[in-house]
Amino acid sequence: MIKMMTGILVPSSGGVSVLGRVPHKERMANAREIGVVFGQRSQLWWDLPVRDSFELSRHIYDIAQSRFDENLGMLCDMLGISPFLDRPVRQLSLGQRMRAEIAMALLHDPKILFLDEPTIGLDVMAKDVVRKFLSQINKERGVTIILTTHDLQDIEQICPRLIMVDDGKLLFDGELTKLRTAFGARRRLTLEFKSDPGDVVLSCATPVGGEGMTRHFLLDDDKTSLVEVLTELGNGYDLHDVSLDAPDIEEVIRTYYQNRLAVEAA
């Protein structure tokens, strides 16, 4: 999909429009308005320092020196790439290379940044840096972020809008909050007791298992408060700890698929 939106591939059916242009017919004009990062392919020159690849990008996009210096300074501050600007790309860690890739894609001030699996293979800290930067560049610079990912945490932390595609078919296109409301309203309640409580019955929750002195429930109503739960439990149980968790994005999407399959099977 990203290859079609960037003009690399021609759609086999239907049409694609990016910023009012047909990408594969107006590749030069389209390329000046977009930035692209492919998680498994590098735009950086392997044996050259990162800075040299950036300079090459300046010449390709004909970026004015003052604008280039300003953007590079901003990206160095936001992505923390200054320490390895003069290091050959082959000596960088995967996380460092990905930060450099993203910086290079933004040097010419694109209106849209396309990213294909930007956090694949990254460690936890590197993923956090990339996600925070993408959210920041969207809010502060107005850059539209379009990414494809199988890492659902990318979606949860970056994307207000979600498009789900399966086998070439559009399943969902809308705000993540709406998907949560429709398929993820049931919060998980965990009760930990000081002694075995036996069977615990709550009128506002459905039991979903437990072991030892712990019991798990799904709240039936998204408006049910923890105070209501504790009031119903009363003094009949020796509680040790209570936790109430919202469903994560993986659980929400799993519920969506389960509901869709149930409808199709009916």
Biggest sheet statistics: 4 strands, antiparallel
Query: Which architecture of the largest domain does the CATH hierarchy give at level 2?
Result: 3-Layer(aba) Sandwich
Overall body shape: elongated
Strand content: 15-25%
Count of DSSP strands: 9
- In the sheet with the most strands, the strands line up as 7-8-6-9
At the third CATH level, what is the topology name of the largest domain? Rossmann fold
Rounded average pLDDT: 89
Helix and strand topology:
Elements: H1 2-5, H2 27-33, E1 34-38, H3 50-60, H4 65-79, H5 94-106, E2 112-116, H6 124-141, E3 144-148, H7 152-158, E4 161-166, E5 169-175, H8 176-183, E6 188-193, E7 205-211, E8 214-219, H9 226-233, E9 239-245, H10 249-265
Parallel strand pairs: 1-2, 2-3
Antiparallel strand pairs: 4-5, 6-8, 6-9, 7-8
Helix pairs in contact: 4-5
What do these coordinates show?
The chain is an alpha/beta fold and 266 residues long. Helix 4 packs antiparallel against helix 5 (94-106). It is 41% helix and 20% strand. The chain has 2 domains: 2-159, P-loop containing nucleotide triphosphate hydrolases (Rossmann fold); 186-246. The chain has a 4-stranded antiparallel β-sheet, with no helix packed on it. A 3-stranded parallel β-sheet has the order 1-2-3. The longest helix is centred in the middle third of the chain and has 18 residues, at 124-141. It is elongated, with a radius of gyration of 24 Å.
